[in-house]
Amino acid sequence: MRFFLPFLFLCLASACSAKELKIFLLTGQSNSLGAVKGSPASPELLKKYEPGKTLYWHENFGQREGVFPGASTSWEQVRPAMPRYNGSMCMGPEYGFAFTLEKNGWFRDADVAIVKASRDGGDNSHWQRNGQAYKALVQAVKNACAAVDKSRHSRVEFAGLLYLQGESNGGGSVPESASRFMELLGNLAADLKPYGDTSALAAQKAVIGENASWSSKNESDPETGNVTGGLEGRDTEVQGKTTHRLMKELAASRPSLGYVPTRDLPKLTAGDNMGVHYSGKSQISIGARFAYEAARLAGKDASSVRSGRYEVPLGSPDAWMNRKMPGTNVCVWNVASSVKPSLVSGVVKLFGIRVEDTAVDTVVIQSAGASGDRLVLGPGGIRLAEGKNLLLRTNVQLAGRQSWHIPGGSTVVIEPLAPAGGLDEKILPVRLSGQADIRILRAEGAPEEAGMARVVLKRVQAASLKCSWTLSGKVEMSLEEMKGQALNPGRILVKDGAVLNLNGVKLPAGSIVNQGGTVNP
Predict the structure, then answer these.
(1) Quick check: 291 and 102 in contact, CB under 8 A?
(2) Are 487 and 512 in contact (CB under 8 A)?
């Protein structure tokens, strides 16, 4: 008995420590495969967004030759090295997906895995029950589940399907896009039951990736210099229908389905001229967007993250990955976000703004062009990651007690939107209004050599502003292009190490309280 009891306790402890394994299925054609060819993600990006915990099983395959060499024989770490396709590295959405899930810790109570079986082309008929793609996906799941360590994982749950396909659809596969996708979900829910819990698939939990448009060109963003995906291209139309429109409408019609925009992202700049494949950098963003939608469908608090729908104003639910108005959430611009400027149309309320891991150094939020456009910023304030900047080209109303965390070398600028003609003399001042207690401080951990954290108010009409401003540490605030104006921005407290540049702006007597800082007239 004395030998049996320790053995029993050991078994019980092992059973209690075993976790559930949540498997996400990833399939589709070349953009799901990740045919990045001559435009892979840089080593620096791969290091920055490297997943460390997510389990990975891949059995990718070609149109004729079957599974590529290098397919998984055991569970491994998510990585872009294998398989190799036409002599080039493959990396699809799995990389950014795994990193984003890990960073946000949405599934701490379980281990997360990805089973990927993607194809190098072909229309959606291959994902019907007798199609090559469907058979390959089911076989990959079977092989992966046979290799699950039962001592580590008490049960397997298929948490959902990630689907990025549609560029090669033609003929009858176009009008059947939506119905064939729903058929795919139903077949997987039935046929994967021997290998794990398929209730999420039966409940139609899936994320649809927006298919790329053929021959869409890359264009240079004049504001940032970054290459961004253009919207010029063609979608194959059959019977007045396109895959793009049908799949988007399907996702919007069912709360169980998520939708990931892709067309704002850069395509390949080397390796092919098809105008349909995304770069390695774009694949990281696509994966992050898949992660936010998967978390939302799982009921997680995925916050308000700016989506790739940059043509949609910030006041629209579709502008955010959680499809909710962001008035009570800190709004995040990160790797999942678009590189294009975000538009303010009418009155848009954001609880706060956080800029991190963006594809560009400067996030631009600007007016759609009407004089009544206004961004209301609440107590969440502003927080920038190191090396990031925020440019607000719209009327701004500040409300509540808030802190702005700005790293050294980073800048927040509030300035008017230039008219379409670009004539400087026609630029009207931006209205900065409201009542708030704002503490501007340099973000923790900023290196000394990074310089000052800067706030610039340029051509601002601030007569109705009743804010109090506190400049802390190595923070510099500048009032620019307002020389000779008599402004009333409220009290400005300039602490030790901070700098206030008035540039000839006249302020009421007593509005500046200098506590060891520098005030330049």
Answers:
(1) no
(2) no
Helix (H, G, I), strand (E, B) or coil at 3: coil
**Domain 16-297, CATH 3.40.50.1110 — does that match?**
yes
CB proximity list for 312: less than 8 A, separation 6 or greater: 318, 319, 343
- Two tokens, residue 295: 């978390």
330-340 confidence digits (pLDDT tens):
999 999 998 78
Rounded to whole angstroms, how far apart are CA atoms 429 and 394?
A: 10
Alpha helical stretches, state H, 91-227: 94-104, 132-146, 177-191, 199-202
- Cis ω for the linkage preceding 83 (within 30 of 0): yes
Domain boundaries, given as residue ranges, for the chain:
16-297, 314-520
What pLDDT shows up at residue 295? Answer: 95
Gap between the Cα atoms of 467 and 392, Å rounded: 18
State the pLDDT at residue 399: 92
Per residue in 21-41, pLDDT tens?
Answer: 999 999 999 999 999 988 899
Distance in angstroms (rounded) separating the CA atoms of residues 500 and 514: 10
Picking from 21, 88, 98, the residue whose alpha carbon sits closest to that of residue 271 is 88
pLDDT recorded at residue 379: 95
Which residues, at least 6 apart from 205, have a Cβ–Cβ distance to it below 8 Å?
159, 160, 161, 256, 297, 298
Rounded Cα gap, residues 342 and 340, in angstroms: 6
**pTM, 2 dp:** 0.89
DSSP 216: P
Q: Which DSSP state fits 269?
A: S
H or E element in which residue 27 lies? strand 19-28
The answer to whether the CB of 109 falls within 8 A of the CB of 20 is yes
Which run of H or of E encompasses 508? Answer: none
Residue 393, SS3 per DSSP: strand
At residue 21, the pLDDT reads 97
CA distance 104 to 216: 33
What is the 8-class DSSP label of residue 306? B
pLDDT at residue number 38: 85
Q: Report the greatest alpha carbon distance in the chain.
A: 93
Q: How many other C-beta atoms lie within 10 A of the C-beta of residue 40?
A: 22
485-513: pLDDT as tens digits: 667 777 899 999 999 999 988 888 888 99
CA dist., res. 397 & res. 432, Å (int): 6
Low-confidence ranges of the chain (pLDDT < 50): 1-15, 222-223
